[in-house]
């Protein structure tokens, strides 16, 4: 079977969930070969093997952390040389999309970003994408070179499929562009203790209707009762009530959870672009005309300041 | 020291209008009115702010797009850019991001640059990869997705709020930079600006001017193909209840029925 290169997204060897989803999708196309760049390959290897990696190519060098994007492009290009894969898969993070783009130029390959599903077609992978604020679904394929495809989080459920997963050293020689953009400092995001927004099974979001940073405590309490991540509309972020890293929508994160609860959010097209593919959508809004109700599977017309705390209590009493 | 800034701006269908696909599965550019991508206004804004801090600067806006794309250029000129370049050629119809990056790279080289500024993503395609592609093709550093930009002493520095961390970045010019919608509100064109824009030069280039063969671009030259595009079935509007004291209870029952609690 053909080899499929899978770029591993990790924090010091702690493999992020989207990579496990990629391995699962890669198995539909061939044998997954994981590429682990930076520190922590030893820690990552068992997890990658458990999810189907037949080989793990690892390289560690200061360039991967001290410079932006380009060193990883050099490394993936080396991995492509070493393996001659049938496709290269990456998660759709901001960084990995940029890596994918530059790799595609180097390989003379077509690029597909933000796939939500992958299947094997007659002439290689077929990628399903969701476009125009998720109003259309397209099926595309790469017609030239080795397909380079990035896949959105939550596009597949990670499945265990134990494979050999032998750890091998990947030799990388850095080109002149590798050290072009220096990372002068890096401040990791403080963990909120809640699930990652893009990976969460449930997301509870607050918008302008939440009316103040302090009131987000209500949204957080509801989220915690469900084990959910907290999101926000741009209006809430622009007002300074919640951090930009939690913004859902066109210029924030795209989420595709099992359940999305929008509270005090009108449902503008740019917000919908980031949540419309959620499996179940619930809206709480005091305006019965709010467009968010058009996509909600269940809507409550009411004041979030009464409905949200009451719902939190209801859930807590049902689950305890 | 002089500073030549080139800003890449895209003409996109209005997100509020009806967007869709033409028969050849390219973006239907007739169905909806177009405009300068709102996210590229942030790039124009930063270019103008950087230019205001330096001597002897020139801000050129460039677009690859159909006839109507001049609207996007005029808007950028009325905000304060000095001149515009429009790459327009019938053979460009259906060009994918790889082709667009090739054309923009050639155009930017043709114009001459110390700094290329882009938006974070186009509001239609929204791939957000063009700046990285440009950097690769031009063989210069990429300093992308900045929420804060500073240009001084032949260097560009900035802040990138990434998924996992906030990074401070630095690179020597020439470089390709992209800015996010957190980088600072874009100015509105003034009446004076709109009048002045009418007299500013707009240079039109075709593929031949840029030494690009028709086969390298367009639908036929694309390295990807769209096999099908289907409209997502409208989400059937679900149940809506009005809270009369037991809204939360009813919602909890729905969540329980769907096994979320
Ligand atoms: C280029 C561009 C990119 C953008 N990107 C994004 C993006 O990524 N994400 C995003 O969210 N937006 C984005 N926007 C902005 C978007 O257009 C909307 O302005 C924004 O989503 C509105 O946020 P909102 O729904 O919270 O506020 P509003 O539209 O003001 O809606 C607030 C809602 O709260 C309800 N409400 C008020 N009080 C209560 C109460 N007590 N109880 C219950 N309900 C109440 C109101 O009825 C109303 O429906 C973008 C815009 C542009 C131009
Ligand atoms: N056709 C185009 N003409 C000029 N600039 C473009 C074009 N397409 C994309 N860009 C620039 O590249 C950025 C990212 O675009 P994209 O990768 O398409 O999301 C945009 O914000 C623009 O600055």
What are the SSEs and their pairings?
The complex is a heterodimer of chains A (320) and B (261).
Chain A: E1 3-7, E2 10-11, E3 14-15, H1 17-29, E4 31-37, H2 41-50, E5 55-59, H3 62-66, H4 70-83, E6 87-91, H5 94-107, E7 111-121, E8 124-131, E9 136-142, E10 148-151, E11 166-169, E12 181-188, E13 202-206, H6 216-226, E14 229-232, H7 234-238, E15 259-263, H8 269-272, E16 280-285, H9 292-295, E17 298-301, H10 304-319
Helix pairs in contact in A: 4-5, 6-10
Chain B: E1 3-8, E2 11-13, E3 34-36, H1 38-53, E4 57-64, H2 70-79, E5 83-87, H3 97-111, E6 115-119, H4 130-138, E7 142-152, E8 155-161, E9 165-172, E10 175-179, H5 191-197, E11 202-205, H6 218-221, E12 224-231, E13 239-242, H7 247-257
Parallel strand pairs in B: 1-4, 1-6, 4-5, 5-11, 6-10, 7-10
Antiparallel strand pairs in B: 2-3, 7-8, 8-9
Helix pairs in contact in B: 2-5, 3-4
Bound molecules: flavin-adenine dinucleotide and adenosine monophosphate (AMP).
Got a strand count of chain A? 17
Percent of residues in helices of chain A comes to 25-40%
Structural class of chain A: alpha/beta
Strand fraction of chain B equals 25-35%
Strand content of chain A: 25-35%
Most strands sheet of chain B: 9 strands, mixed
N-end to C-end Cα span of chain A: 50 Å
Helix-strand pattern of chain A: EEEHEHEHHEHEEEEEEEHEHEHEHEH
The helix tally of chain B amounts to 7
* Poorly predicted parts of chain A: none
Number of strands of chain B: 13
Bound molecules: flavin-adenine dinucleotide, adenosine monophosphate
Gyration radius over CA of chain A: 21 Å
Q: Give the overall pLDDT of chain A as a whole number.
A: 95
């Amino acid at each position: 079977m053909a080899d499929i290169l899978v770029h591993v997204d990790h924090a010091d060897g702690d493999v992020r969930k989207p990579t496990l989803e990629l391995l699962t999708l890669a198995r539909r196309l061939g044998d997954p070969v994981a590429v682990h760049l930076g520190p922590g390959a030893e820690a990552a290897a068992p997890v990658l093997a458990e999810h189907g990696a037949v080989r793990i190519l690892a390289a560690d060098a200061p360039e991967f952390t001290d410079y932006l994007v380009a060193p990883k492009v050099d490394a993936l290009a080396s991995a492509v040389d070493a393996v001659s894969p049938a496709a290269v898969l990456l998660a759709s993070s901001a960084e990995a999309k940029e890596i994918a783009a530059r790799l595609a130029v180097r390989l003379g390959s077509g690029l597909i970003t933000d796939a939500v599903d992958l299947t094997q077609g007659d002439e290689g992978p077929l990628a399903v994408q969701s476009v125009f604020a998720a109003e259309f679904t397209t099926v595309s394929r790469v017609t030239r070179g080795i397909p380079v495809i990035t896949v959105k989080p939550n596009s597949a459920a990670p499945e265990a499929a134990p494979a050999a997963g032998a750890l091998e050293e990947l030799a990388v020689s850095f080109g002149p562009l590798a050290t072009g953009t220096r990372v002068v400092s890096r401040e990791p995001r403080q963990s909120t203790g809640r699930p990652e927004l893009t990976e969460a099974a449930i997301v509870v979001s607050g918008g302008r209707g939440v009316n103040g940073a302090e009131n987000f405590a209500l949204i957080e309490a509801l989220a915690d009762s469900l084990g959910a991540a907290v999101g926000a509309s741009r209006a809430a972020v622009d007002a300074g009530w919640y951090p930009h890293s939690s913004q859902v929508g066109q210029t924030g994160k795209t989420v595709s959870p099992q359940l999305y609860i929008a509270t005090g959010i009108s449902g503008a097209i740019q917000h919908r672009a980031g949540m419309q593919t959620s499996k179940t959508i619930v809206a709480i809004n005091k305006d019965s005309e709010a467009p968010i109700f058009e996509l909600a599977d269940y809507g409550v017309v009411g004041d979030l300041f009464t409905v949200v705390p009451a719902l939190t209590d209801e859930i807590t009493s049902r689950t305890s | 020291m002089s500073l030549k800034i080139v800003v890449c701006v895209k003409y996109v269908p209005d997100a509020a209008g009806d967007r869709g696909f033409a028969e050849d599965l390219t973006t239907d550019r007739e169905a909806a009115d177009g405009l300068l991508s709102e996210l590229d206004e942030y790039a124009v804004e930063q270019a103008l702010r950087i230019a205001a801090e330096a001597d002897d600067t020139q801000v050129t806006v460039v677009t690859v797009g159909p006839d109507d794309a001049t609207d996007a250029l005029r808007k950028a000129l009325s905000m304060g850019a000095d001149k515009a370049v429009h790459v327009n050629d019938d053979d460009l119809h259906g060009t994918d991001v790889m082709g667009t990056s090739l054309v923009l790279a050639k155009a930017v080289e043709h114009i001459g640059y110390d700094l290329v500024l882009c938006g974070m993503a186009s509001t239609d395609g929204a791939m957000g990869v063009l700046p990285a592609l440009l950097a690769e093709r031009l063989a210069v550093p990429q300093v992308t997705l900045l929420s804060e930009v500073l240009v001084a002493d032949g260097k560009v520095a900035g802040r990138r709020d990434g998924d996992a961390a906030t990074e401070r970045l630095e690179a020597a010019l020439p470089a390709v930079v992209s800015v996010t919608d957190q980088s600072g509100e874009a100015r509105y064109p003034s009446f004076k600006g709109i009048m002045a824009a009418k007299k500013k030069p707009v240079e039109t280039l075709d593929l031949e001017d840029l030494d690009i063969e028709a086969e390298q671009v367009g639908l036929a030259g694309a390295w990807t193909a769209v096999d099908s595009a289907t409209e997502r079935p409208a989400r059937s509007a679900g149940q809506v209840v009005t809270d009369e004291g037991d809204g939360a209870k009813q919602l909890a029952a729905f969540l329980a029925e769907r096994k979320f609690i």
